[in-house]
Write a structure and sequence with these properties.
This protein has helices at 11-22, 33-44, 93-108, 123-129; strands at residues 2-5, 49-56, 59-69, 76-84, 113-115. The chain is an alpha+beta fold. It has a single domain, classed as Gcn5-related N-acetyltransferase (GNAT) (Aminopeptidase, 3-Layer(aba) Sandwich). The longest helix has 16 residues, at 93-108. It is globular, with a radius of gyration of 15 Å. The protein starts with a strand and ends in a 16-residue tail after the last helix.
Length: 145
């Protein structure tokens, strides 16, 4: 497996993987390939986009979409989306993608990385295994309309 920077030509494959990861009973999403691609393209076109793909034998098997975020004392990386093809989950691909972001953070001397995820899915345990902690001082809030 190889990790490389995400390119615009990767968006279609990434959209396919996003659909395969989230369109199920656990996440209960209904992504179409078109909406998934447009969603990911918005991240890709962001001014301070940070993105990587995991490639096995020329096939993309996972991706990470993030952006560098200015903060009052030191900038950080906010992970917008990270996903690994369902048949390749549990093989270290997600950890390798996070490792690439860690190298980026160290190189740029940033504060660290943040993200949000569904607390009822397996994802929190994965992130905890990779050194993330729940922040008691931070609350994710939403207003549905």
């Amino acid at each position: 497996m190889k990790i490389r920077k995400l390119q615009k030509t990767d968006l279609g494959a990434c959209a396919d993987i996003l659909c395969s990861v989230y369109n199920n009973e656990l996440w209960m999403c209904r992504w179409t390939k078109e909406t998934a691609r447009a969603y990911l393209q918005d991240f890709f076109e962001a001014k301070k986009f940070v993105g990587y793909v995991a490639v096995e034998e020329c096939d993309i098997v996972g991706a990470l979409f993030a952006h560098e975020k200015i903060w009052w004392n030191n900038s950080e990386v906010f992970i917008e989306e990270m996903f690994v093809r369902p048949d390749r989950q549990g093989c270290g691909i997600g950890s390798a993608l996070l490792g690439e972001v860690e190298r980026y953070i160290e190189e740029k001397q940033l504060a660290g990385m943040t993200l949000s995820t569904n607390k009822y899915a397996p994802a929190p345990k994965f992130y905890e295994k990779n050194g993330f902690a729940s922040c008691e001082h931070v609350m994710f809030m939403a207003k549905e309309m």
